[in-house]
Amino acid sequence: MKVLTVFGTRPEAIKMAPLVKRLQLEEGIESVLCVTAQHREMLDQVLALFELVPDYDLNIMKQNQTISQITSNVIMGLEEVYKKERPDIVLVHGDTTTTFAAALAAFYQQIRIGHVEAGLRTYDKYSPYPEEMNRVLTGHLSDLHFAPTERNRKNLLAEGIADSHIFVTGNTVIDALLEVAGKPYEFEEETLRSIDFENKRLITVTCHRRENLGENMVHIFSAIRDIAEEFTDTEIVYPVHLNPKVRETAGAILGNSSRVHLIEPLQYQPFVNLMAKSYLIITDSGGMQEEAPSLGKPVLVVRKETERPEAVEAGTVKLAGVSRETIYKMAKELLANKGVYDRMARAVNPYGDGHACERIVKALKQYGEESNNQN
């Protein structure tokens, strides 16, 4: 059975790397890896960390490329790869533009598609944008659906996906996180080496989503500045996204705050270790809502909605929105009220046990056997 895996961004690479490694070791499976390099430098860092060498690299990244350009370049590039390899199934992940375009290109070649991290929904097609429609459309192109949670399975069932094509596996990001967190590591970044982790409470911040650009980001960063000014026992670290608009806003609002450290984006291994040393995480990232609870870290999500409501229900995540006052109030409660903090820190992560890749490979092999019997 030939399985061709496609991804193009850092988050996809992190979540798919342990799966690709598992596929490469599995008897009866020929694993082929193609990267689009929708991200370039950040993607390469993850490939190096997990010691993965792509069989194909489309290298599509260009400065200021539009979503339309990414989509068309991925489709055109993968057309030749698919024709040459003729895989039994193409695996894609999540909700990036690479994901949707790769699935569409496979559909055009009448190749079956497996969707890893299937069934996440906000039911607002413009938030997150374009991710919500990327994952919806990919879901309806796919033949196999690897859903992290039971709620994700129910979302797919409600959209008419056959139950026999859905497998609840947990999220592969937990597999990746536990693998990396288990390795010894010391920070190389100068700012991180200077922080007194023993006597200061570290708050890690990430913020980059398109829907937060502009006024929302001003509110978020202003709340973070307020927190830094009031709680003198905190240090705030923000690895600033490469988007120039994000950097401009972060510099203007947070650049002069003595306890806020604006640093360059981190590779995955130091970032996992930064999360592990954190007291609290403030983020608009989807992946961190899944990862941080495995490390016992409460998460405030600075978005108006989340496609990961399981984390909110489990108590590992709180939805803080984008209001300066609300973000500040919720962060203050966690910093000032040990009982509230401990309830979040000790809640059970609903996203898995680190064996998602094992379950996905088992489902793929079962699918391959069934296909052979039908033929």
Automatic annotation (TrEMBL):
Residue ranges that the Swiss-Prot or TrEMBL entry lists as coiled coil: none
Assigned keywords, A-Z: Isomerase
Any GO MF annotation of the entry: UDP-N-acetylglucosamine 2-epimerase activity
Span of domain UDP-N-acetylglucosamine 2-epimerase: 22-365
InterPro entries: UDP_GlcNAc_Epimerase_2_dom, WecB-like
EC numbers: 5.1.3.14
Family: Belongs to the UDP-N-acetylglucosamine 2-epimerase family.
Protein name: UDP-N-acetylglucosamine 2-epimerase (non-hydrolyzing)
